[in-house]
Amino acid sequence: MRAILSGLHHKKNIQELELELIDVPEPFDDLAVTFLEKQSQASLTIPISKAVSADVVRIKVDANDLQYQAGSQSEFSWEMYLNLRQQHTRGLIQVESEYLSDRHQLTLTSYYQVNSDANGMAVFNMHTQQADNEFTIKAINLQDDQLQITGPSRINNQPIENQRLVLKNTSADSTAEWPITHMSLHGLFLGVIPLSDLAMDTTQQLFIRSTVNGQDLEQRVVMSQSLAGQVTQTITAGHRLVMLEKRYDNGIRVQETAALTVPERIAAVPGKVGGVTRILSTLMDKANLVYMRRLFRRGHRPYDQPTIVFESFGGRQVSDSPYAIYLLFKQLYPGFNFIWSIDRSQKHFCKENDISYVIRRTSKWVRVLGKASFWISNARFPSWVKKPQYLTYIQTWHGTPLKKLGLDIENVSMPGTTTAKYHVNFVREANRWDALVSPNDYSTRIFRSAFGYNNQILKVGYPRNDELINSTPDDVTALKQQLGIPLDKKVVLYAPTYRDNQFAEKGKYTFELPFSLDEFRKQYGDDTVLVLRMHYLISNALDISGYEGVVFDFSNHPNISDLYLISDMLITDYSSVFFDFAYLKRPILFYPYDYHMYKDELRGFYLDYEKDLPGEIAQNEDQLLSLIGDKLATPDMSDNKKFMAFYRRFCSIDDGLSSLKIVNYVIQQIQKNG
Q1: Which PANTHER family does the record match to this protein (predicted)?
Q2: d(CA 549, CA 90)
């Protein structure tokens, strides 16, 4: 017996769900659908209201019944079950889904959307407590000498009245307004701004004005997805360049400038040469990959002397837990052979610090990997790298998981793979690991399920955090001097996560700080500095000129633990850095400026973001700047009950000896194998 969600119809303020039934016995008037909320385990049972045919039935549900007061819970994810209540057949059948609904706005602050999970089962998602000053559009394009915007014209099937598009000049206190008169598909408008109406040499932000239930509104236009597939640049008949850009807060910015002249275009030709060079480089990489695969298949005899190969973040750094283990190994057992697998960018660092290395994806690299006794890495090796039977592969991983991993990612949207293929490859790679390092019971459970991991787990804490536990105040002073941080000032560390929607085009990433550096300097600049630690993909997009002495960019500093140690507080959003920073028992502030959009459109979380964090959540920039002062005034969180409960759950097993425990494990393996 099967039940499949095959349709959703809006009937005034009621939602009518259509189900296809396969091999379900009649009578249908004894059937019902039970909704089960994943997090709270609340349930709601609704009888079948209509039998359309022998295999199609419908139920009517008021989406407002699928949200309720449950503490601070604002997201409700309902699974659906066909409830069989016939005399001889009773039980529950989980409803599958062949139907994916569009976002349906219920009120200014809530909407629902029907999706399917990774197993194809129906999920009715309710989203509440949305920002009422944001208006989500479907598409935006520059074409036919117009700025064209498509968005909803109704809220819960009630028309939005008097909709107008508004452009606000970001550098001058001026606005311009255009009425929306064209309707697109049912429930959608098509708004148009002639490009000839745009003020010259301006940057403007897009808003929408309307009347909803008699209330006049002005809302910032936002897009949840990236601008990929949209037409975001055009040159007008007047030889003016118009560009669309998605801001850090998902808002839309319109820029109007003079287009390049013919001499300027000629001067830009060398950029095309660079493009050709990149194409040739790509072809060479593909040829090299074929060669590497062939070399690995040959096999190698192991070195006579125990040899350990270390790698961090795919060779991009010499850092993290592998580096902490390496440093202790070199101190205790200098007679072993230690080699780092690195990208060419790390050659200078290795030579400067007398570190033996091999360049990735070279024939020597294949030989070293194939002849080594141990690999110690914090990320995955390529699937085509062959692991010898005599080798022990220790995976340290690189953080306590907050965002979903591996098998727990229900819909994988990365290019070049599918969800099923990604899951298979992840499990295959994970089970090449002979031992996986875990920092706590919480992570152990997730690693088992998300990685499909069946081998040994070393629950010893992360070696990289030994530095946090063992460092002294003198060490911190020395670090500040080394990094050029004033000793008489407090330090605020801002370390946000990388967002998938910051991708602009191949090789280009965008980023803006989601708060004003001018305001930070005005309120705290006399006695506080701001340290930035951004994702390596976007670090080059930062411009902090003019803020020297107040703002420091250490995005490319190899050891983030150094930055934890010098900082009096941490500001983050969804990055797992707060799990490590909590070891210091210093205040943590969360600023998820796009929380609902990030959670819905990118990846979900393991923790309840609104309940389980070890610090307060700032909802907007004003609150963020205010809370910074509060947190700096309470530098020690040892007396904070909520913080210490988090500390005991996630940090308590790490005693500052994690590196030693991994070293001891390796020595035991060497002795056991003779």
Answers
A1: TEICHOIC ACID GLYCEROL-PHOSPHATE PRIMASE, TEICHOIC ACID GLYCEROL-PHOSPHATE TRANSFERASE
A2: 71
> What letter would DSSP give residue 115?
E
User: 127 exposed, middle or buried (CB, 10 Å; 0-12, 13-18, 19+)?
Assistant: buried
**Percent of the chain scored above 90 by pLDDT?**
47
For residue 394, what is the DSSP state? E
Q: Determine the Cα–Cα distance for residues 619 and 625; give it in Å rounded to an integer.
A: 11
The runs of H, that is alpha helices, within 68-218 are none
Exposed (0-12), middle (13-18) or buried (19+): which is 505, by Cβ within 10 Å?
Answer: exposed
Q: Do 135 and 151 touch, CB atoms closer than 8 A?
A: yes
DSSP reduced 3-state for 237: coil
Up-side HSE of residue 639: CA atoms within 13 Å toward CB?
3
The three-class DSSP label of residue 476 is helix
Following DSSP, what letter does each residue of 19-50 receive, concatenated?
EEEESPPSPGGGEEEEEEETTT--EEEEE--E
Residues 6+ apart with CB under 8 A from 330: 338
- 512 burial (CB, 10 Å; 0-12 / 13-18 / 19+) is middle
The first and second tokens of residue 445, run together, are 């459970």
Three-class DSSP labels, 281-293: HHHHHHHHHHHHH
In this structure, how many other beta carbons lie within 10 angstroms of the beta carbon of residue 530? 24
- 517-524 vs 621-632: helix axis angle to the nearest 10? 30
Using DSSP, state whether 244 is helix, strand or coil. Answer: strand
Binned at pLDDT 50, 70 and 90, residue 511 comes out as low
Q: Which segments within 224-363 are labelled E, that is strand?
A: 233-235, 240-246, 252-258, 307-311, 337-342, 357-359
Q: What rounded mean pLDDT belongs to the chain?
A: 86
Beta strands in 568-624 (DSSP E): 569-572, 588-590, 616-617
Mean pLDDT, to the nearest integer, of 410-436? 81
* Reported confidence tier of residue 84, pLDDT bands at 50, 70, 90: confident
Residue 538 is predicted with a pLDDT of: 53
CA distances from 527 to 485, 486, 520 (A): 12, 9, 11
Distance CA 10, CA 509 (A): 39
**C-alpha angle with apex 391: 387 to 396, nearest 5 degrees?**
85
Q: Are residues 181 and 194 in contact, defined by beta-carbon separation less than 8 angstroms?
A: no
Name residues whose C-beta falls within 8 Å of residue 452's C-beta, 6 or more positions apart in sequence.
406, 407, 426, 427, 430, 431
Please provide the distance, in angstroms rounded to a whole number, between the alpha carbons at the two ends of the chain. Answer: 58
Cross-strand partners of 221: 135
Whole-angstrom Cα distance, residue 360 to residue 357?
9
Q: Are strands 14-22 and 2-11 parallel, antiparallel or unpaired?
A: antiparallel
> Is it the case that residue 256 has pLDDT exceeding 70?
yes
Find out whether 624 and 618 touch, Cβ atoms under 8 Å: yes
For 460, the enclosing helix (H) or strand (E) is none
CB-CB contact of 596 with 603 (8 Å): no
Q: Among 339, 279, 292, 289, which Cα is nearest to 315's?
A: 339
Predicted confidence (pLDDT) per residue in 184-218, tens digit: 677 889 899 999 999 899 999 999 999 988 889 99
pLDDT of residue 503: 43
Contact 267, 259 (CB under 8 A): no
Between CA 359 and CA 345 the distance in angstroms is 10
Confidence of residue 396 (pLDDT cuts 50, 70, 90): very high
Q: Are strands 161-169 and 202-212 parallel, antiparallel or unpaired?
A: antiparallel
The token pair that represents 444 in the structure block: 């152990």
What's residue 561's pLDDT?
94
Q: Which residues pair with 203 in a beta bridge?
A: 255
User: Rounded CA gap, 208 and 166, in Å?
Assistant: 6
